[in-house]
Design a protein that fits this description.
Radius of gyration: 21 Å
Order of helices and strands: EEEEEEHEHEHEHEHEHEHHHHHEEE
Strand content: 15-25%
Largest sheet: 8 strands, mixed
Bound molecules: zinc ion
Number of helices: 11
Number of strands: 15
C-alpha cells in the first residue's frame, strides 16, 4: 500500500466551507483521512510526507464543455479546425494531457471530431497508460443534414432526418461506447448570422432522442441558444444544455423546475475569447464579435437569475478553437466571478462538487472527504480569494489523480 500525507495545507474541500488548516492522508487511490490542524493525524509511518507550507489543497476541477479534439491548445496554435486523421488523434490525446496539466481531473465531452476518438482515448487513460482527465466521452456532434456549415468542422456523417434516424444515431453512439450524445438543437450565430435562433430539429425528433437515450442509457448534451431549443432540451431529459442565451421566462421556469436533474454551462469562455481576439487584418471577425457582445450582455442577466433559482451553472467554455485554446479552461472560473455573479468560492464549488454531480460521481469525487477518490490539486495561494491563480499552471504545485501524482511537488515548492 502506498500512502501520502499532505501536511500544513489549507483545505478547500469543495463543499463551499471556508478553507481550513489541516492535513490529508491518501492511501492508494483514496483519501483515507482529513484532519483539522491541531487534531492528531492518523499515524501512517510509511507515508510520504508532503509539507504544503500553507498552500491550498483542493479537489481536481471538472470541465463541463470539453472538446479535446478541437485542435488548438496553449501549446500549439492550429488555424481552423481540420487536421489529417493521424494528427487529429495525436492532438486529441495531447489535449487530454494538457487539461490534466492545468488541473482538470475530470471532463464531460461536448462532442468530438471523430466517432470513436474519445471512447478509445478514455480506454487508454483509464488503463493508466496515458495522461488525461476522467472522461465522459462523446461521439461526433450531430447536426441535421445540411451543407455542413453549422459547425466549423463540418465533419458529420451518417445522419438523416426524422425520429427513426435520430433513434438510430443515439443507439449507434451508445453501441460505440459514448456516454453522452451531443445535439445542436439550435444553430450558432457566431458561425452563421441568425442561426442561434434557428431550431435544427423538430419536437418529434428531439423526443425520439430522449426516448432512445433513456433506452440506451446515455446522456444527452445540447447546444441551445434559441428559447424553443432550450425548452425542447429540458422537456426531453437532456443532462446538460450549453449557452441557453435566449432562454425566455418559460424556459427559465422550466430550468428551475428541473434543476435537480440537469445542468447548464453558459460557456462564457468562448464569448470572452471572441471579444478579446485580435485577428490578423485579412480575417474579419466583426460579425462574430458583435454577436459575442450580445451573448455576453444576455448571460450577465440570465446567469445570476438562474443561480438565484438554484440551477447548477458549470464552468466549461468551448476551449479548443484557435483563439480559445485547450488548456485555458480555468479561465471560465474567473469569468463566472467577473460576469455571472459568482463569488470565487461559488465558482470553485461549481467546478468541483457540482462537476462531479454532472459526471454522476459525486459519491466519490468533487470533494476532499474521507473515502473519496484522491483527485487533488495543491495550489500556491488561495483560489477562494483570487480564483484567477488557477490559470497559471506553475501555481499548481502538485496534481494527483486516482492517488498518483501526475505532477509531483518539488521540495519546498510551496514556499
Ligand atoms: Zn461546444
Amino acid at each position: 500500500m502506498s500512502a501520502v500525507l499532505f501536511t500544513n495545507v489549507r483545505i478547500f474541500d469543495g463543499s463551499g466551507r471556508a478553507p481550513f488548516a489541516g492535513q490529508v492522508l491518501v492511501k492508494d487511490n483514496r483519501i483515507a483521512a482529513v484532519s483539522v490542524a491541531g487534531e492528531r493525524a492518523p499515524p501512517e509511518d510509511s507515508a510520504t510526507v508532503i509539507d504544503g507550507y500553507g498552500a491550498t489543497l483542493m479537489p481536481g476541477l471538472t470541465e463541463a464543455h470539453a472538446h479535446l479534439s478541437w485542435p488548438s491548445s496553449v501549446e500549439r496554435f492550429v488555424p481552423g479546425m481540420a487536421l489529417p486523421p493521424e494528427d487529429l488523434l495525436l492532438t486529441t490525446a495531447r489535449n487530454a494531457r494538457i487539461l490534466l496539466d492545468h488541473g482538470f481531473t475530470s471532463a464531460y465531452s461536448g462532442g468530438a471530431l471523430g466517432k470513436t476518438i474519445e471512447v478509445s482515448l478514455k480506454a487508454h487513460i483509464d488503463s493508466g497508460s496515458m495522461p488525461g482527465p476522467r472522461l465522459i466521452p462523446s461521439s461526433i456532434e450531430r447536426e441535421p443534414p445540411t451543407d455542413g456549415t453549422l459547425v466549423t468542422a463540418g465533419n458529420i456523417a451518417d445522419h438523416g432526418s426524422g425520429p427513426d434516424a435520430i433513434r438510430a444515431f443515439v443507439k449507434s453512439c451508445a453501441e460505440i461506447g459514448a456516454k453522452s450524445v451531443k445535439f445542436l438543437l439550435s444553430g450558432e450565430s457566431a458561425l452563421k448570422p441568425g442561426a442561434s435562433m434557428q431550431l435544427l430539429y423538430t419536437a418529434e425528433e428531439v423526443r425520439a432522442a430522449g426516448e432512445q437515450a433513456r433506452a440506451s442509457n446515455v446522456w444527452l448534451t445540447g447546444h441551445a441558444h434559441a428559447p424553443e431549443a432550450v425548452k425542447l432540451g429540458i422537456c426531453n431529459g437532456f443532462r446538460i444544455l450549453y449557452h441557453c442565451t435566449y432562454a425566455d421566462q418559460e424556459a427559465i421556469d422550466l430550468l428551475t423546475e428541473r434543476r435537480g436533474e440537469m445542468f447548464v454551462a453558459p460557456s462564457i469562455g468562448i464569448v470572452q475569447a471572441t471579444l478579446d481576439a485580435k485577428p490578423p487584418p485579412h480575417f474579419d471577425m466583426s460579425h462574430i464579435k458583435a454577436d459575442a457582445a450580445i451573448v455576453l450582455e444576455r448571460q450577465q442577466r440570465l446567469a445570476p437569475e438562474l443561480k438565484k433559482r438554484g440551477v447548477r451553472l458549470l464552468p466549461g467554455g468551448d476551449y479548443g478553437f484557435p483563439f480559445n485554446p485547450n488548456g485555458r479552461n480555468a479561465r471560465d472560473l474567473e469569468l463566472f466571478v467577473q460576469h455571472l455573479g459568482f463569488t470565487p468560492t461559488e465558482a470553485l464549488v461549481a467546478a468541483t462538487q457540482w462537476g462531479s454531480e454532472l459526471t454522476g460521481t459525486s459519491h466519490e469525487l468533487g470533494q476532499v472527504k474521507a473515502g473519496y477518490l484522491a483527485d487533488l490539486l495543491l495550489v500556491k495561494g488561495d483560489p477562494t480569494v483570487n480564483v484567477a491563480i488557477l490559470q497559471d499552471k506553475s501555481n499548481l504545485l502538485a496534481i494527483m489523480k486516482d492517488g498518483k501524482f501526475h505532477k509531483a511537488p518539488t521540495a519546498n515548492a510551496a514556499r
